[in-house]
Amino acid sequence: MSAETATNVATYAFTITEILSLILGIVSIVLGIFAIWLTPHLKNESETLNKETQELLVEIKVDAKSVTRGVLSEMEKWGDVGRTALTSSSEDNRSGGVGSSTSSSNSSPSN
Q1: Into how many domains does the chain fold?
Q2: Is the model's pLDDT at 110 over the cut of 70?
Q3: Residue 23 CA: distances (Å) to CA of 18, 19, 96
Q4: Is residue 109 part of a domain?
């Protein structure tokens, strides 16, 4: 009977759909592990970039304030010059100074 004993071997045949499903499942697991591994690295890089950006923003704010101060002082000086020029020319016109329209109209000959 030992010669006649048949060994029962269970064979299972995979279909193409099952093979593709198995391969895609393995790829999905590998990609998930890669994404989990990559996340902390990207987080650290993002935090470093965020700190650098905040430092640059502080520098930009300081520069903007100093530029604003300079521009305002220059505008104040130009305003003073303009006011001085306007007040001096209007005083000349009121007193009948050179170029006044009242002096030329009074000197016209009448017949």
Answers
A1: 1
A2: no
A3: 9, 6, 102
A4: no
